[in-house]
Amino acid sequence: MRQHPNDPGIPAFQPPARLRLLVADDNPVVRAGLTALLTDRADTTVVAQAADGREAYEAALRHHPDVILLDVRMPGVDGISALPHLARLAPVMMLTYSHEAETVREALRLGAGGYLVHGEFGTEQLVRAVRDVHEGRPHVTPGATRALVDALRESAAAHADSQLAATEGQNTSPPPSQLQSSMGQSIRSRFRLSVREAEIMDLIASGMTNQQIAAACFISEKTVKNHINRIFAKLQTATRSQAAAKWLGVA
């Protein structure tokens, strides 16, 4: 470690090492734009580009990047297909226009360390997200998080509707309007979660880890754990799978 020039006993400030990036996107304009933004900065540089998943894999083997920025939809081998192979070589951050819930969920399941949707970040936010992913801190932009939460809520509502339909033929059933209200309360309201706890429970049910939830909600991982402990107590469950099943109304 270098010594401070005015005091040999004080270590000099060492800036973080420049991260070497691989940009994979089939759109040459997007590739060029990202490369222009991230090349020759003090903290990042682009060492390779690729137009599809196969090129990205070959470039990663050749250049050993610190982080791979990967689009979802590309001709040939798309980003989702290439993701599990690339994730074994370097941390991968999805960088795409796609924010469909199923795509976000699949990317995170297959090993993506982050998911950024174009239009939801600036240059400095992008660089911070890249460094977070490199250091093992997941980063998910709000649009991707909202897509997951909305899909979970639609799934829970659909399950409630199916239960309602199954009971409509019984002579002792109350009017459908009362049943609908009752079903909603039985699945969500009866657990008496706070707004934040409900948000975190939605993300748990989507399969996100504590780190990913912390990144999505802009809170610490310790705070996430505290929320989960309270959620488990209110739902009277001991595991994430049990809590998700109760929350989605399938247990």
From TrEMBL:
Taxonomic source organism: Streptomyces griseofuscus
Positions with biased composition (Polar residues): 168-186
Keyword Phosphoprotein: yes
GO biological process, one term: phosphorelay signal transduction system
Pfam families: GerE, Response_reg
Protein name: DNA-binding response regulator
GO molecular function, one term: DNA binding
InterPro entries: CheY-like_superfamily (IPR011006), NreC/VraR/RcsB-like_REC (IPR058245), Sig_transdc_resp-reg_C-effctor (IPR016032), Sig_transdc_resp-reg_receiver (IPR001789), Tscrpt_reg_LuxR_C (IPR000792), WalR-like (IPR039420)
